[in-house]
Amino acid sequence: MKYTTWYSFKAEIQLADYSTYQLEPKGFWDQKIELRREEETLLEFKMGWKGIVIETNFNGREKNYLLKLKGLLSSRFILIDSEENEVLAVDTDFKWSKLNFEYNIETTIEFDTVKNKDLMLLTILHCINYYLTVINGAA
After folding, report:
1. Residues 91 and 76: beta-carbon distance below 8 Å
2. What is the rounded distance in angstroms from the CA atom of residue 119 to the CA atom of residue 138?
3. How far apart are CA 131 and CA 62, in angstroms?
4. For the chain, what is the radius of gyration of the CA atoms?
5. Three-state SS for 23?
6. Band of the pLDDT at 17, cuts 50, 70, 90?
7. How far apart, in Å, are the Cα atoms of 31 and each of 34, 122, 129, 134, 135?
8. Which of 63, 62, 57 is nearest to 37 (CA)?
9. Distance CA 89, CA 93 (A)
10. Between these two residues, 130 and 84, which has the higher pLDDT value?
11. Distance (Å, rounded) from C-alpha 92 to C-alpha 87?
12. How far apart are CA 118 and CA 114, in angstroms?
């Protein structure tokens, strides 16, 4: 994943097979971000009251997820599917010496069967960066 500028919500994802995707902010104040390949929107996410709402549309199949903090003062994000199952957890750890985050990612068997899971995983990391930037900007 490559960001266009520091603290930008616009990024490009290139997978191991050299396919490229764009993460582009949409709307007033960039409240929604779309994952696109050429003209097709594959995924979009936006901040909601409970966390980040993620809507995927891979191969014509729509699926919804919620990414949220595990607790109020936690650094652990969890991804919940529409059946309320926790399918992924990400622990964030800010490294002052590098001035960036390191991530510890745990997936479940359900997540491992998701189509485009590599693309989904990179987008989730982008969601976490988005969340942290928005929250830190509000502080």
Report:
1. yes
2. 29
3. 23
4. 14
5. strand
6. very high
7. 10, 19, 14, 10, 13
8. 57
9. 13
10. 84
11. 17
12. 9
pLDDT for residue 91: 93
pLDDT higher than 70, residue 16? yes
Judge whether 75 and 91 are in contact, CB under 8 Å: yes
Percent helix, strand and coil across the chain, each to the nearest 5: 20, 50, 30
Instruction: Tell me the backbone φ, ψ of residue 84, rounded to 5 degrees.
Output: 70, 20
**How far is the C-alpha of 15 from the C-alpha of 134, rounded, in Å?**
27
Q: Name the band, by pLDDT with cuts 50, 70 and 90, for residue 29.
A: low
pTM: 0.86
Please determine, for residue 89, whether its predicted confidence score (pLDDT) is greater than 90.
yes
pLDDT above 80 for 73? no
Amino acid at 114: V
Amino acid in position 123: T
Kindly state the tokens that stand for 94: 């800010």
The 3-state DSSP class for residue 96 equals coil
